[in-house]
Structures
1.
Amino acid sequence: MDCIGIIGYGHMGSMLVNGFLSSGVLGIDEVVVTSRSRESRDACAAAWPGIGIAATNRELARQCRTIVLAVRPQETKEVLSEIVPVMDGDEHIVSLAAGIGLAEIEGMFPGSVTRVVPTITSTVGQGTTLICHGRQVGMHDALRVEGLFSAIGNVMLVGEEELPAATILSSCGPGLFAAIIEELAGATVRASGLTPEQALALATETAAATAAYLRETGETPGDLVGRVATGGGVTEVGVRGFRERLPEVFDEAVAAMLERYGAVGK
Ligand SMILES: NC(=O)c1ccc[n+]([C@@H]2O[C@H](COP(=O)([O-])OP(=O)(O)OC[C@H]3O[C@@H](n4cnc5c(N)ncnc54)[C@H](OP(=O)(O)O)[C@@H]3O)[C@@H](O)[C@H]2O)c1
């Protein structure tokens, strides 16, 4: 049966089920879900009446040709070793696990394997899912997976070497930008009579508007800084401070994230 099976109904698994079904890219009879706990399986069945729920990972693997592993990196190999014995070999494994390479998965399942890095912002149909196909993935399977994720946002095909850095931008990015919004809003609250709610509303809306401006005008961030930070003005003082101190902060943060990425799932 050419259905999509999703193993793991956590943050990402539930987001994918919601996204694929709400967007209409998949019908309710084209998705089968399982998760370790009865509670998660029941939650999925309650949220999506009529959806296929498999009692075990093996049951799902017997039913579906495309199998999305939406479990944590440390659980991915355990789930794979559980399901591989009941698979035919012509299935397509789609792994979300950060830090577990194609070669490692292909070592356990010598068939079609794709790594996908989702982003929490797909919940609102925005952001970019990264896709990295293994060498065994045929055109049909590649386009199918790309089409599915295109329904919940943008997709970008990347080589496996670029995946860690691209992950920092697309998948960790929402957390990083949220932290920046929080810091900027917090600093204005500490320095003024703005309420935290006012500051957060302004900072959040400005971040969204800035991204929309850059996307729609095609200007670079440098162009935009040049338009807003006029010589001797208020913005220029802030931007100068950022440019003096932030490169070091960001270099350190990116280096630490890349180091952690390499250790995930090991
Ligand atoms: N969160 C993000 O923003 C993000 C971004 C990019 C990539 N990812 C990747 O996405 C994957 C999932 O992350 P997540 O945030 O969704 O994790 P999560 O919320 O912890 O969800 C993982 C789910 O896997 C289920 N599970 C665990 N062991 C299982 C097993 N042996 N068999 C079947 N189901 C099992 C758990 O089920 P129960 O609840 O039933 O116990 C849990 O619901 C990870 O590999 C992560 O690296 C996450």
2.
Amino acid sequence: MFMHFDHAEIEEGPMGHMVEDRHLRRALLKAVAADPAITMLNDTRVTDQTVEPTGITLTLDGVKTLRARLAVGADGRGSGTAERAGIKRIAWSYGQTALVCVVDHEKPHHGIAHQFFMPPGPLAILPLTGNRSLIVWSEASANAAAINALPDAQYLDVLRPRFGSFLGELSLTGPRYSYPLGLSLAHSMTAPRVALLGDAAHGVHPIAGQGLNAGLRDVAALAEVIADAVRRGEDPGNDAVLARYQEWRRFDNASLALATDSFNRLFSNDNALLRLARDMGMAAINALPGLRRTFIREAAGLTGDLPRLMRGKPL
Ligand SMILES: Cc1cc2nc3c(=O)[nH]c(=O)nc-3n(C[C@H](O)[C@H](O)[C@H](O)COP(=O)(O)OP(=O)(O)OC[C@H]3O[C@@H](n4cnc5c(N)ncnc54)[C@H](O)[C@@H]3O)c2cc1C
């Protein structure tokens, strides 16, 4: 069963853009370095935090301290900020590992992304510049470790039958990576004087390629809530301000966690009943342009209450 989402079905332009992490990081670091209000502390780790009624003190590498009215924990799935603030999390492993690499291929991809759903997990082929694509290939973890241990030529031999021949001959370019996959959802996005964002609040399965996008929406929402609070003369770290941020983002993030978890369970298996259910679901989406457009707009991040920064407006 095939399902095709075409951005021409919506008016807002491409469904998404593929941006290589290395370019994104370089651009973000450059922007941060150019902002005199931000001090970059490289190779420094937050080791402790103490909440007081009017602020929070962070300890860096067990020695230096920083004090502020609000600490934002953007420290990923194993967030120490969340742990120190006593925020619990729901977490489980999918027993899958994503193998990630870039391939060169003979034929052009025409800017089309593909995702093949196979019992051990999805295989995503995502267009990059030139005749190159990023592969995010999920396998059961034990099998992924065995594949990852293979030399490049044999690794490609395992990939080829899964990938198919529609882009011609394949070759590997650059290093290969692997990421164990799991869900990690914080019970709360806030605690006194603390806000969590990105994977620190919600680490999800990459099946929909939405993790970083959701994190960027958190950033934009928190920035807007803080900017509005400061304009009104409020303390940006007080409970009422943090509650506004949590109210804005929590439902979206919990829904994303639930949707990615359900998609992965529905698609990464060979159960005949589930196969029938997903074939019927896909047939319905194919037959109903309105429903298909809803999916495209959702994946493109065009739905919901978008923060000003996400709409290209100033804070
Ligand atoms: C295989 C794969 C494919 C993906 N594809 C997509 C995609 O196509 N689109 C998409 O939107 N998302 C995708 N994602 C998800 C995306 O990668 C994550 O959502 C995103 O990287 C999370 O960013 P983050 O900054 O919140 O957390 P992280 O990237 O985990 O960064 C956390 C940072 O905090 C730092 N840190 C941790 N503890 C401390 C401490 N004590 N002191 C100081 N610093 C600390 C860490 O060093 C790290 O730099 C994918 C994920 C995977 C695994």
